[in-house]
Please model this.
Amino acid sequence: LRFRSGVHDAEDPLSVEVAQQLLTGPLAGLDGADLRQLGRALREEERSALREVPAEQRPAVRPAGELIREALAEPERLVLLGGPAARRARELGLLLRKVRDLLLGGATAEEALWALWEASDSWRERLERSALRGGAAGRNADRDLDALCALFETAARAELRAGGPRGALNFLAEVEQQDIAADTLSGRAVRADAVRLMTAHRAKGLEWRLVVVAGVQEGLWPDLRRRGSLLEADRIGRDGIAEPMPQSALLAEERRLFYVAATRAKERLVVTAVQAAAEDGDEPSRFLRELYRERPDGTRVPEVRVEDVTHRPRRALSVAALVAELRATSVDPAASPQLREAAAERLARLAALEDEDGLPLVPAANPHRWWGMAELTENEVPVRDPQRPVELSGSALESVNACSLQWFLGREVRAQEVSSGAQGFGNVVHVLADEVGAGRAPADLDVLMARLDRVWDALAFDAPWKSEQEKGEARAALERFLAWHTGQRGRQPVATEQPFDVELKAGPYAVRIRGTMDRVEREDATGAAYVVDFKTGRHTPTKAQVEEHPQLAVYQLAVREGAVDQAFDGVRPEPGGAELVQLRQPESRTVADAPKVQHQPGLAENPAGPEWIEGLLAEAADRVLRERFVPTTGDQCGHCSFRGSCSARPEGRQVVE
Ligand code: SF4
Model:
């Protein structure tokens, strides 16, 4: 289009838009900033020229787009302007003029294309560099070069039919009308054992055993629009401009074309069309009914089978769907051995297909490309140094034992999708709870909300409404926190955000547990240490799960190992228990302003005995050191980011099947 409009300005004047497309295309390679700079320079030039005109007669300076268009048509104007943008615009203008003169002098479309190509040194070099470098840019360059070759071949064919401006117009009309890439002139692209896809025009003179004429819809076939209607190339005759073709002649030509397509089949012809349910929807072409004559007894001459297909195909009609079905059949235990074998054979045939360059045509059919078929690799660098204690946090312990694969992907590979909004919510509420617990902020909701307001807009939420909704939730969470904080619990706070780092023996392993306790309190009655963990998530464990909650138990273990001695004036307290304070969850339907509190008894009172948590630590350390991260399904799958690639889940079955 750029080529046509730029060259044939007599019939199709160079518009502002086309001029800009040409300048920002590969021939000139300008970008938006270059265009703006060029436009500014041209406007400045025109403004200077207009200063000579008396003020009362002086017209306004024209828009930059119009000046650029004019400069491209008269490139000499650009000589006086400095800068690379003006230089490249001038070179392009001169080149277009040269090509136009060539065409007017009787050159063919192919010769015109060669002139354009030979004058495009920098584009040629760019393409060559990118193609040799490879990668995504290289693939794009290869694709552009392929497209150029196809363009030259089409131009060569147009040349066979007519030269000069008529040939160029034919060529342009042909390129514009192409929905399907034309056959190449070289025979090597035609494979005997492949389906050939082409227009009816191109099928002339050829024959196949089976021919499918697809999409024979009324409106498309016959297509009674005038050919080349934009340029009206069809009207250019030997003796000047001819009358447009009448509709009846167009219809007859379309009918002939359909006849050509339908008679290419030596053995079997399949014609398809869509019949929409709605009256004014798609309907089959009238030509379809002309394929046969119906006798009074309902039989057809010739014998044509008309099949109404009202259902969707069993599988999508694509290579990917075929490969998927063959793969599934080849391992389906319910299929007969013969069927499985046949599916495997077909896969092998598909995998062996190659294009002219020796590249596989259906790489997905090759088992080497299938997930789950590769041998397990060995990791030369261990996930954790076996000579050092295994480091685990309370939450990591829970995660390793629930599903070690989820732990590995989430914590070690760091592939976990984190909702930054949810994380920000939790952080803000925890910080405010810490401020109040440590006495740095009053237990006053208005004060806390004022602080929250100051930072809230910095949190990333997906949408403004989500931010508003979460802010309401944050207010409710702070309200519940204050209700809990100011309530009577028979305990006094002694530390907030208490860090701990203790090393202990768990079975044969040395384990280092580290983390931070949201709050540590002293029980009035016993003097024991009680650990509180504030939760801001939506998930609430059951009562039974809380009794064996690994994170709370690890906190208690840390207390037993001396993690909070300092907060208790150097005297080691007994771990008296721990609790989860669910700030997003109301205590009950009727008590919405107090949080749900879930208690874990002291380690000594735990029915499973204090050893169970050490057993859990030993199990987790063993999994981490042996590096067998296998999926374990359970409640944790409900909010797992890796379900789509987890072989233990239906969503991730494609990984191994
Ligand atoms: S989906 Fe379930 S089994 Fe799979 S990795 Fe996630 S938590 Fe583990």
Remarks:
- The first strand starts at residue 208 and ends at 213.
- The chain has a mean pLDDT of 84.
- Residues 403, 405-406, 631-633, 636-637, 640, 642-643, 646, 648-649 surround iron/sulfur cluster (CB under 6 Å).
